[in-house]
Design goal:
By secondary structure, the protein is an alpha/beta fold. Helix content is about 25%, strand content about 15%. The protein folds into 2 domains: about 50-385, Alkaline Phosphatase, subunit A (3-Layer(aba) Sandwich); about 385-455, Arylsulfatase, C-terminal domain, CATH 3.30.1120.10.
Length: about 475
Amino acid sequence: MVSANKKLVNPARIVCHPGKPMRSLTRWLCACFAVGLVLAGFAAEKPRPNILFILADDLGYGDLGCYGAPDIRTPNIDRLAREGVRLTDFYSNGPVCTPTRCGLMTGRYPQRIGGLEWAIPPGAKHLGLPPQEKTIATLLRESGYATAMAGKWHLGYTEDRAPNAHGFERFFGLLSGNHDYFTHRENNGERDLFLDTKPVVLEGYSTHLITQHALEFLGGMKDKPFFLYVAFNAPHFPLQGPDDGDKQVTLKNWAQGTRETYVKMVEAMDAGVGEILAALDQRGLAKNTLVVFASDNGGDRFARNLPLAHGKGTLGEGGIRVPCLARWPGKIPAGKVSHQVGITMDWSATILKLAGAQPPKDRPLDGKDLLPILAGERWGVKRTLFWRRVGPNWVETHRAVRDGNWKLIEDANGKQSLYDLAKDITEANNLAEKEKSKAARMKKLLDQWEGQIHPPLYQVSRKPEN
């Protein structure tokens, strides 16, 4: 404390005298300056956002109210469109479950990893995301995030390929591609419901249980940023509504069901999303949470993919173009519609950028940061995206590329279909013969891409070793 009888020294009048070297004053000033920078840095530092990523399973492009659904009520998911951005030209990394989930977890084309270009079949314990991979959950956890998953994994059965081995501190859900919503058994009859690495037997409808565990995780969140991945298995087969617990379902009969049941499944998922959004509001977390909602691929038999043609399992627009919504209050304008072309793995790049997490140097991301465009800080950019569909028999290979508004599909026999999506979203007018030079150029893009991703990092056979 300075005595009242002493006058404060004006720093501008400080001079150096013999025996008081200038370097002492310099050190003192530098120290003060450094402290000031640190304090200013603390003052300017903003809390890192929470991440809530919600993934539907086999949801049709036109099966939300905000995408024109005439017979499904989805007020809670539609709320994300009102309070954020709705993307019209967003794609999944694959036409079925596994490749898209691989793209999300790695931020890279799933073709870079052998054995994951098609859905992992029931009981195929030798397939899955290799232990050597570093997922976005792992990278976020290493960066100080709390990580949890509730729902469908479909990236491997064994403990070293399961969610807890890939960065999730907590996991509840199913490891397979589908299970009965009430008995929680997979197609092959095996039980498939886990809490972390341990199988559990619970009563209840899968959609409700997934919601419940997501809410339990949010209930424990206070000061630490979090990444919560909620992967509903709805409305994937088997078609069972929340009131169908007493009905017998043949898990191998994929044609079983009705549009009415499908609608009930989507609406049950929407109710779960509403509960989760309400929990964010109640805990004061909504303002600093990026919420993303998307589907893993196009809709199946009872879905509505309109105005797109084709559906799940194909490289037509109805198989890979999916609904996608994003909300971050104050960062993404409310009620915005974006025609920016994007793909699942773009969210991986966006999330890591927001968290300040870097991917491994030997695993550069294929996805791009979407936030500057969605936030209106940058104009939209032209994208060139690729797909390769290797069917369940691992023989029929179909490829596709979208370059700007043009899209080329090449089937297993080399037949080409070329579309101008700006004028022909239904892919009704094949221009391959009329625009031969453009088709040839796009095929060259496909060949170059395939050369870049081949061979995959891990050679995995679809058939188990004897």
